[in-house]
């Protein structure tokens, strides 16, 4: 939990608290129905009023668009982020920012701006894919634990405890050591390490719903478990999962950067913000600009996800309704 | 036999009672003249170090060593400390690498160089005050070969008769080593080996006081040696190793009061400490040479630093090369290996990572090695057109049909940048490749199992002789032959040269062997190592040898200007 | 209460054995790529004889279950084995490093408490003021910062540029010899940064929550002045989650702080374990993880127990909720 290791757990505690309250409250007010269109419309309206969340959304969209379209404009405008001409290395390396190279050039003469943009691809990919893995495993585990209870609940929750007992970054490093360092393995590792939090959030939402009489009623009417799950329980757990997922993307981006910084993540020549920082560390004194950009990119992107997450949480928080 | 006085300090030469045998002098003088502008240590001693003052502690950056005991030290960090604390039978001149007497005053081989007799200096003492005897060498060597120690540097002694038996646990005594009396050590080899006298110059082959080793279970961290410095306190792991001057040392008295080896995790951090004024001797971080040199000045000979001439970039006896898997198609085709050799822009690698200080390798044998001759590997140069032609000759015009290959290197350090450049060079002649960055254990495993195409490899000479690389790296039966190159012609030539008694003939034979390699190009040499270090502005007359051994005795520290 | 503690300790046992068994499975040949013995060597290839000697020296010639039994036996004697890479006793390594990790962790916790709590209180008391907004935004920034980058920025600014400009500057690496406060400042701030932001946020939201509770309103209605209300009632109750957080955070910090330790060359156990994983130095990895997990579990237990003292409503009985 030292360093950034604790992000997942802390988010969990804050989110879980809110979730339990809001799910319980939401049910009281709205009864056992799917969140209505109005609820979503309200959410969007509230979200729009939150300027910081809107700013986060805009920044994430900009980064996303730049990353997706990178192949079209980066090589002609800034230069190739990976390819090298070894005869030009001495002439081009370590240039300070200029019109031609707005962020300067790196030690092998490549444009830092181009590498930062391509680094965004890695970060977003890892962020989204890792969180998707966490969500899928987490939902499954949470549902099994809450719905069947008893032994399966004990086993799953103990397993989650074991995951929490390990220091996050060390666990991730150990998994990468097992799988080998690569982008795919990084999001797999981060994804797997993220499930216990989702499972806990989801489990507590289900438990609070399960207590309700309408579930008993549905069951008495012969509804099957999967049907109860999909018709009555999932819809009520969607909001917390969205909030938690958004925040987790930021966390996953930071984890990827940390792993790549330690040489356990995305490998060169593929640029990632983390491995660019590792490289920049040795150039810290001669070429401090190299270290500035990937760091700023991580900060702004993660911040954008955090602000969006905060905004969504407030917007979806029924308790806060005027 | 040529005689020559011990170079360290003239006051000692009258103590010499016998004529000292030196084999290398003539050849070395030539090499030495070629280096140009070097001061011999003798001249330096005459100058009296101009205003040399005593006192001060020299602090040096090291990473946490595996071991600092001569029995186990295999990396340079440990050897720095060992070399300050122990004297072997002979030692290498800090600049020319030629042999000088150390613990032994004189030595001589029998007629076929299979039995060597070393005459020890009398009155030389261990740090505990006891006199050094011939038995102490025998004990130290046996300890290195003791299976219980599992020393990785036991290979130094494999030429000695009975060493293998001892390593394998079939003998408890080293048959080939006898203390004829307190001051005479006789070493019998398994087979004639004229270069053996250079082997015993390795800093780890010094004597050990048995009684002290037996008495202290932590001896290996609280050593007692026979060199100019002794331990001030036991090794403090991950922090420092502190040594102080040993006042009863037989040789020249060091100027400095002590040495402090400060342990940091990497050169970057150490350099930041250096800039903060907390280190006297450290590495220049990768890519920093130009501005560091501009700021601190370059040592004219590359080995001797003084205030204002603080950056050391002299060549070292070591090479960085692309190890090609000779057993695997298409690399079993010499034309393909030739194309790879011609494709690599060595200068760009040196420029990007070492500010041009490392010399592009034009063969496997570095300049400064005994018997060196330029241009032994004519195809080890950068020529894109010739590379394309060679690749076409091999049946892959523009790389058509050539498989995508993997470039293997160990994670960390500057390797990923080197291999990104090589990758770009190979792409330029039509060979597509992927980088395969592996942790050390995995990297070593892949080499061992021949599961690689092209891999990073580095070789640092143990002794300043060509044979040390040619035989070890390319002789078909050698364990270090990890390119798995096999050539009967080369094997015959290197074995023949190895046992030739006459030095000049031996060197000529080695050059012939090297030429055979130049024709076959089993690997692609990239660059010769060179120093990439600097000292602080208070350090004077500091000599850092091409074998990476600093002369801690003759350097001195100016009174602090701050 | 005692029963609860005993039960928690009993629960630790399977986790403990589970963890050690997993670590032993991982070190079985062929599970992870790479031969640990090769980690001991440099570029030179070692002879088969030497290789076998090393295998024997580290007991790797025994079947895995025998190695496990031997390991567990030695573990109870406090012997964690011999490091492959460092040629030293693992126990000795951790005994030496733990105080360094502790030193950094305690410094960071101190910063968290002082800065985090006061900032949290100020922003709760002055809710919706300029300060409150500034705190909200800056804590968001802090939790989004890669800590290693923050460390590097500080090194460049306070270590290198300050020196260049002739200002008082800070040492950038190590602990100092002997250890001193100056070396501790930047690593402690770096390590504390994220958690300080969380402490401030939790403190703020707790204070606000608590102040909306009936008993606070009652107190206010009874005529107590704002400041007194904050001191007497809000603070004490708001503190509980903060204490929990700091406790858990301390537990995690006792596992070492790999990134901070890497950036600042701090000789703690986090970096040690990280290096050991990449070096396949299993004795250090196993020993380190065992220690870390035990430390973490003990701290968690202490945190749970301290609840009972802080919040009289909580009582641990037979079945804990």
Please report the distance between the alpha carbons of the first and last residues of chain C. Answer: 14 Å
> What structural class results from the helix and strand content of chain B?
alpha+beta
pLDDT averaged residue by residue of chain B = 87
Based on secondary structure, the structural category of chain C is mainly alpha
Number of strands of chain C: 0
Oligomer: heterotrimer
Count every beta strand of chain B, where a strand is a DSSP E run of 2 or more residues.
23
Q: What does it look like?
A:
- Chain A is mainly alpha-helical and 322 residues long.
- Chain A has two domains: 36 residues; 250 residues, MetI-like (MetI-like fold).
- Helices cover 75% and strands 0% of the residues of chain A.
- In chain A, α2 packs across α13, α3 crosses α6 and α11 runs antiparallel to α13.
- The longest helix of chain A has 37 residues.
- The N terminus and C terminus of chain A are likely disordered.
- Chain B has 17 helices and 23 strands.
- Chain C has a domain of 222 residues: MetI-like (MetI-like fold, Orthogonal Bundle), CATH 1.10.3720.10.
- The longest helix of chain C has 36 residues.
- Classes of the chains: A mainly alpha (322), B alpha+beta (562), C mainly alpha (321).
- The interface between A and B is medium-sized, with 25 and 29 residues.
């Amino acid at each position: 939990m030292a360093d950034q290791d604790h992000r997942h757990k802390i988010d969990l505690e804050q989110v879980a608290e809110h979730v339990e309250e809001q799910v319980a409250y939401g049910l009281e007010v709205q009864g056992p129905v799917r969140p209505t269109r109005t609820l979503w419309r309200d959410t969007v309206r509230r979200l729009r009023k939150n300027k910081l969340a809107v700013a986060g959304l805009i920044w994430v969209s900009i980064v996303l668009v730049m990353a997706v379209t990178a192949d079209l404009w980066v090589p002609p405008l800034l230069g190739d982020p990976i390819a090298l001409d070894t005869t030009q290395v001495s002439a081009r390396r370590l240039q300070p920012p200029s019109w031609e190279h707005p962020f300067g050039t790196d030690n092998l003469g490549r444009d830092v701006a181009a590498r930062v943009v391509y680094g965004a691809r890695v970060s977003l990919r890892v962020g989204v894919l890792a969180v998707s893995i966490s969500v899928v495993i987490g939902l499954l585990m949470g549902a099994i634990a809450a719905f069947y209870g008893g032994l399966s609940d004990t086993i799953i929750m103990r397993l989650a405890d074991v995951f929490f007992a390990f220091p996050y970054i060390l666990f991730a490093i150990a998994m990468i050591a097992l799988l080998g360092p690569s982008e795919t393995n990084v999001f797999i590792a981060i994804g797997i390490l993220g499930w216990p939090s989702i499972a806990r959030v989801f489990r507590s939402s289900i438990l609070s719903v399960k207590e309700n009489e309408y579930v008993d009623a549905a069951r008495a009417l012969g509804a099957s478990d999967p049907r109860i799950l999909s018709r009555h329980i999932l819809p009520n757990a969607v909001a917390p999962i969205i909030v938690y997922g958004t925040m987790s993307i930021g966390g996953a981006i930071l984890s990827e950067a940390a792993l790549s910084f330690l040489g356990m993540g995305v490998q060169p020549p593929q640029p990632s913000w983390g491995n660019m920082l590792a490289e920049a560390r040795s150039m810290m004194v001669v070429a401090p600009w190299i270290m500035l950009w990937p760091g700023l990119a991580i900060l702004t992107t993660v911040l954008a996800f955090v602000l969006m997450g905060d905004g969504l949480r407030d917007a979806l928080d029924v308790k806060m309704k005027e | 036999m040529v005689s020559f006085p011990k170079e360290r300090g003239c006051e000692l030469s009258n103590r010499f009672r016998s004529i000292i045998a030196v084999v290398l002098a003539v050849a070395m003088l030539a090499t030495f003249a070629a280096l140009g502008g070097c001061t011999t240590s003798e001249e330096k001693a005459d100058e009296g170090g101009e205003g040399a003052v005593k006192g001060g502690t020299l602090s040096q950056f090291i990473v946490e060593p595996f071991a600092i005991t001569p029995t186990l030290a295999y990396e340079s960090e440990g050897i720095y400390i060992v070399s300050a604390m122990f004297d072997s039978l002979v030692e290498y001149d800090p600049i020319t690498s030629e042999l000088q007497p150390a613990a032994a005053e004189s030595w001589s081989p029998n007629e076929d160089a299979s039995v060597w007799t070393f005459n020890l200096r009398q009155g030389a003492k261990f740090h505990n005050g006891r006199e050094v005897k011939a038995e102490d060498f025998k004990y130290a060597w046996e300890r290195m070969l003791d299976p219980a120690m599992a020393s990785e540097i036991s290979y130094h002694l494999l030429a000695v008769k009975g060493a293998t038996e001892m390593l394998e646990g079939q003998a408890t005594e080293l048959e080939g080593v006898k203390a004829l009396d307190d001051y005479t050590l006789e070493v019998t080899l398994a087979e004639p080996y004229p270069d053996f006298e250079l082997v015993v110059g390795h800093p780890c082959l010094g004597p050990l006081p048995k009684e002290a080793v037996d008495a202290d279970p932590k001896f290996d961290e609280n050593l007692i040696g026979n060199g100019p410095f002794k331990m001030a306190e036991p090794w403090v792991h991950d922090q420092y190793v502190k040594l102080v001057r040993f006042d009863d040392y037989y040789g020249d008295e060091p100027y400095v009061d002590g040495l402090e080896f400060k342990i940091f995790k990497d050169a970057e951090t150490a350099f930041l400490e250096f800039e903060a004024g907390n280190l006297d001797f450290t590495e220049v971080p990768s890519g920093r040479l130009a501005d560091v040199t501009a700021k601190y000045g370059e040592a004219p000979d590359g080995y001797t630093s003084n205030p204002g001439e603080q950056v050391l970039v002299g060549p070292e006896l070591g090479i960085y090369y692309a190890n090609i898997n000779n057993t695997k198609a298409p690399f079993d085709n010499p034309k393909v290996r030739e194309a790879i050799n011609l494709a690599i822009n060595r200068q760009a690698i040196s420029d990007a990572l070492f500010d041009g200080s490392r010399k592009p390798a034009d063969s496997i044998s570095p300049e400064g090695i005994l018997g060196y001759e330029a241009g032994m590997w004519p195809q080890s140069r950068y020529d894109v057109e010739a590379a394309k032609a060679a690749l076409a000759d091999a049946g892959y015009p523009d790389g058509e049909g050539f498989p995508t290959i993997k470039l293997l290197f160990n994670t960390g350090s500057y390797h990923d940048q080197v291999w990104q450049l090589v990758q770009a060079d190979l792409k330029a002649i039509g060979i597509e490749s992927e980088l395969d960055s592996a942790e050390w254990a995995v990297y070593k495993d892949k080499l061992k199992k021949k599961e690689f195409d092209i891999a990073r490899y580095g070789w640092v000479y143990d002794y300043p002789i060509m044979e040390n690389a040619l035989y070890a790296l390319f002789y078909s039966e050698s364990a270090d032959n990890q390119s798995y190159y096999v050539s009967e012609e080369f094997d015959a030539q290197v074995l023949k040269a190895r046992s030739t008694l006459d030095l000049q003939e031996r060197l000529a034979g080695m050059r012939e062997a090297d030429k055979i390699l130049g024709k076959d190009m089993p690997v692609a040499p990239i660059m010769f190592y060179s120093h990439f270090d600097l000292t602080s502005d208070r350090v004077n007359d500091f000599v850092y040898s091409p074998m990476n051994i600093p002369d801690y005795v003759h350097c001195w520290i100016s009174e602090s200007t701050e | 209460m005692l029963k609860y503690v005993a039960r928690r300790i009993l629960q630790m046992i399977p986790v403990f054995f589970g963890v050690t068994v997993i670590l032993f499975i991982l070190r079985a040949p062929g599970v992870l790529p790479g031969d640990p013995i090769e980690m001991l060597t440099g570029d030179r290839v070692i002879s088969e004889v030497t290789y076998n000697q090393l295998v024997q020296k580290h007991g790797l010639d025994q079947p895995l279950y025998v190695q496990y039994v031997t390991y567990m036996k030695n573990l109870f004697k406090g012997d964690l084995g011999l490091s492959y890479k460092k040629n030293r006793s693992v126990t000795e390594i951790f005994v030496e490093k733990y105080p360094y990790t502790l030193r950094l962790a305690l410094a960071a916790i101190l910063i968290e408490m002082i800065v985090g709590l006061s900032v949290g209180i100020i922003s709760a008391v002055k809710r919706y003021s300029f300060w409150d907004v500034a705190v909200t935004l800056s804590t968001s920034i802090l939790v989004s910062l890669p800590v290693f980058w923050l460390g590097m920025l500080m090194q460049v600014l306070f270590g290198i540029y300050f020196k260049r400009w002739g200002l008082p500057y800070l040492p950038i690496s190590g602990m100092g010899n002997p250890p001193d406060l100056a070396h501790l400042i930047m690593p402690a701030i770096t390590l504390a940064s994220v958690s300080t932001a969380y402490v401030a946020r939790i403190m703020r939201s707790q204070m606000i929550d608590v102040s909306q509770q009936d008993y606070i309103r009652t107190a206010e209605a009874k005529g107590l002045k704002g400041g007194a209300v904050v001191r007497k009632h809000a603070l004490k109750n708001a503190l509980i989650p903060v204490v929990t957080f700091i406790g858990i955070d301390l537990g995690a910090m006792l596992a070492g702080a790999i990134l901070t330790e890497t950036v600042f060359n701090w000789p703690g156990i986090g970096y040690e374990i990280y290096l050991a994983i990449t070096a396949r130095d299993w004795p250090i990895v196993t020993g380190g993880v065992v220690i870390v997990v035990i430390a973490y579990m003990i701290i968690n237990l202490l945190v749970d127990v301290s609840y009972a003292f802080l919040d009289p409503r909580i009582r641990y009985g037979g079945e804990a909720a």
